[in-house]
Design a protein that fits this description.
globular, 173 residues, 7 helices
């Protein structure tokens, strides 16, 4: 079975919330789902083109005086239906790809100081990410951001998944 490009669905999710340019979509991803889903411009634009060809989105050219034109993408009804069908499918198990573990596994001829350095860096990153997750959790549980109950539960679940992952890595370090 061919692997499905999940970027398409990440972009449909964003466009189901707000229309925007490729730049706007990237900013939205960076400010909302970047802790567990990463997209880059080099991947976003070709996928947007394919999605437009598949009639999952539309493109409107926005022209503002004194500025270059801007493509604004919006989800279509067909796109919403495709997204909903995908959201209902079971989650595919992804193979683990860890550069750290790959390097650790093959580091028998590497100085121990280098290995320790890598682990210390991972530990620092985990501590930083754990603080960020805790800050986000506090924002959502304080009521600072108004959100309906179902979204609150779903968003807190993703934040806590991230927290537990960081705590596990810290224990390993």
């Amino acid at each position: 079975m061919a692997k499905v490009n999940k970027t398409k669905y990440a972009l449909l999710v964003v466009l189901s919330q707000v229309s925007g340019s490729g730049y706007d979509i990237k900013k939205f991803c960076d400010s909302s789902i970047s802790h567990f889903w990463n997209e880059n411009y080099g991947h976003i634009y070709p996928v947007l083109k394919r999605m437009e060809e598949e009639e999952l989105i539309t493109k409107e050219i926005e022209q503002k005086e004194g500025r270059p034109s801007k493509n604004i993408y919006s989800i279509t009804q067909k796109g919403r239906e495709d997204l909903e069908q995908w959201l209902m499918l079971p989650v595919e198990k992804n193979p683990v790809r860890s550069e750290l573990l790959l390097k650790m596994f093959w580091s028998k001829d590497i100085p121990i100081e280098s290995i320790i350095e890598k682990i210390q860096k991972i530990k620092q990153d985990c501590e930083k990410d754990l603080q960020e997750y805790s800050k986000l959790e506090k924002i959502f549980t304080s009521g600072e951001i108004k959100v309906d109950k179902k979204n609150l539960v779903l968003w807190l679940s993703t934040i806590r998944y991230g927290k537990y992952g960081e705590e596990t890595q810290l224990k390993w370090c």
